[in-house]
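QA checklist item 7 of 12: single-chain prediction sanity check.
[x] sequence parsed
[x] length recorded as 523
[x] structure emitted
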Amino acid sequence: MVDLFGGNPTTPNASVLDSDDTVQLLDTTLRDGEQAPGISLSPEEKAGIARALDRANVQYIEAGSACTGQGERETIRRVTDLGLDATITSFARGVQRDVDLALDCDVDGVTIVVPASDKHVEGKVGTTREEVVETTGDLVAYAKDHGLWVEVIGEDGSRADLEFLVDIAEAALDAGADRSCYADTVGHASPETTYEYVSALAELGPVSTHTHDDLGLAMTNVYASLAAGADVVHGTVNGIGERAGNVALEEVAIALSHCYDVETAKLDELYGLAQKVAHATGVPLPPNKAVVGENAFTHESGIHTDGTLKDDAMYEPYPPETVGRERRLVLGKHAGRAGVAAALDEHDVDVTDDELAAVVERVKAVGDRGKRVTDADLLAIAEDVQGRERDRRVELLDLTAASGGGTPTASVRLRVNDEERVASGTGSGPVDAAVKAVRSALGPDADAQLDSYHVDAITGGTDAVVTVEVEMSHGDRSVTVATSDSDITRASVEAMVEALDRLLVAVDGKPDDTAESPPRADD
């Protein structure tokens, strides 16, 4: 048996932490997270993410690296000007100029990073261990003299000689540093190594941990660090970052709360925070991502759906509301009678036992073809089984979109009840312009919220067919529609119109004919 966390192999630790322990979070999404390939956050996006982190009660926010350039410094100032409760810090290399630049940004603190492994001391910086120790003490004293909170990281600490890493931390703390930080910079360490190194640093004073996920051990190494005495965890929202990324902040927060009753953040803010970062960075959330992925609280299997309908906790470790989520029951090849019946009931569709059996059979047949059964699919199946005519309120008759050479524009012609309406719109792209045109044509009746928009290419080549899936809601009702076409704009508009139509029918009200309408097609 592996002697994990330094416990006796025959009597492993019953608990890494208890509810009396205090653990805080340092978010480095705006610095380390942005260093992931292809990510560049605007000042507005960084400010928005910082506000969301503060709402989630994250204690430390690393707003960037002041040494990067003038644009980065202006962005850091944008964050420090927000007046947040969190301690706002800047990353600083082991040179006084970096500390001065951070001071110019009016930050509360700095994370001073100095080389720790011989690869970095000799190969990267071209200095000596003795010079690193001396410089560390001098820089910490300088930063503290200027009123800064100071943390010192020995870069590549997991590959450093432990005695030298201790020397760095000792010099930092003796000079007044608030804490040292163990950094597994390249995601190299095992939990046992992490425990050994953090234990040695914790004997000197407060210690943080900074883990990467190159071996898939970022979360495990966080627990090893906490067991060894660390009390601050560095992480990023959604685990974004260099290479395989950092430990995911939301996973640390919910796991500590659920497993050890240790509270680090306002948990019901986590999902909104994750969505904000995914949107700003352009890095979508994987469906199977813990805590914030689409599938985390989504059930399809007939056995699981039936159990969940009987007891919410049957197949979930904690309620989705804990992290700002909602439970979803979806239909596919694994659907059972209970799940289909519940989905139909959500849309106020009454069926007999025989009709339910027929709908279940059709749903499974669609799922067997590798297709997810959306709400629109289910309602169409039920209508066909029951021989009902579709009570359609909104229908797309014509769509024209253009995006070459200027502002993207689009025009649509819709049939709304017995009336034709035309409208146009402009946007950041043809899809955005077309969606705005649809909303303009429908007027007040298009006040449904677009909750999600997802595009998948289902064939290859320049003539690829794409599937657009949208989820829209109005009040307490929601509907999901998927549409495929070789034209992404048409697929998007058709999906949105179908969703709006289903929602308007569901609320049992025709579009408001008394409202001022856009011009008729024959005007």
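[x] summary fact logged: Residues 298-386 form one domain.
[ ] second reviewer sign-off
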